[in-house]
Task: structure prediction
Amino acid sequence: MAELKKFEEYQLDIPVIAEPAKDQPIEIEVTTTSPKKKLRHITYLERIVVMALVVAGVALAVMTIQMRTSVNQTLTDIGQIQNEVNTTKTDITRLEQEKGELSRADRVQKIAKEKGLKDHADNIRKVK
Result:
């Protein structure tokens, strides 16, 4: 069987903390630091880095606003151009219909007879 090793006792030096007397109030020292004192501990490089981050943030905000403005302007321009295209298409359709009505053969012959023109069958050509 396995034998146990001999155990040696060690004495630890633990300091004894004296308890404060109950009749004496506990004094707590509060030190306040003003922002100026805190800023004195910031190095020059840290100040440059913080300023660079602030400038970068402002630049990104300005660029975002500029991009949104340009996108909105472009969308407005596209809408106006689409309205112009639709108006032009409507005008083209209306004018083609009017051209078709004005160039009907029976209308042309009716006007020609009213003006006293005669029909020459050998001079008539079909135009598409």
User: Anything to note?
Assistant: Residues 20 and 29 are 16 Å apart (CA to CA).
